[in-house]
Design goal:
alpha+beta, 32% helix
């Protein structure tokens, strides 16, 4: 399961303490081989735990459309007087020691409601 699916169930450190469950670095030994106890990522700092959960949720949400459609949407705010910009994408495959670079020139255009 994704960490974001179970994140909220481990955010309440008081509940984990009440039931004698481990969290933080102690939770690292509380898992089976090849498994990660999600409580490992939490500490006694509730604000830090909340921020962590929100970051995980935002990251998962940002890839939702990509997972459903295979398209990753990028929005870029450009200066009003920009006439051209170049988008560069770099893919690095460290296992095969390869790098693929693709460049896309983008030219100014008018589109109602920013639908390009």
């Amino acid at each position: 399961p994704k960490l974001s699916d179970i994140c909220s169930s481990f955010q309440d450190i008081d509940l984990l303490k009440h039931y004698g469950q481990t969290y933080g670095s102690d939770a690292s030994v509380d898992s089976g081989v090849g498994e990660i106890n999600p409580a490992f990522f939490f500490s006694d700092d509730v604000e830090e735990n909340t921020e962590f959960c929100l970051e995980i949720f935002a990251r998962e949400s940002s890839f939702k459309e990509y997972r459903e459609t295979g398209v990753y949407r990028i929005s870029v705010d450009t200066p009003k007087d920009a006439e051209q910009l170049e988008i560069t994408a770099v893919y690095r495959d460290i296992d095969n020691n390869r790098e693929i670079i693709s460049r896309l020139p983008v030219y100014a255009a008018y589109a109602p409601k920013r639908n390009y």
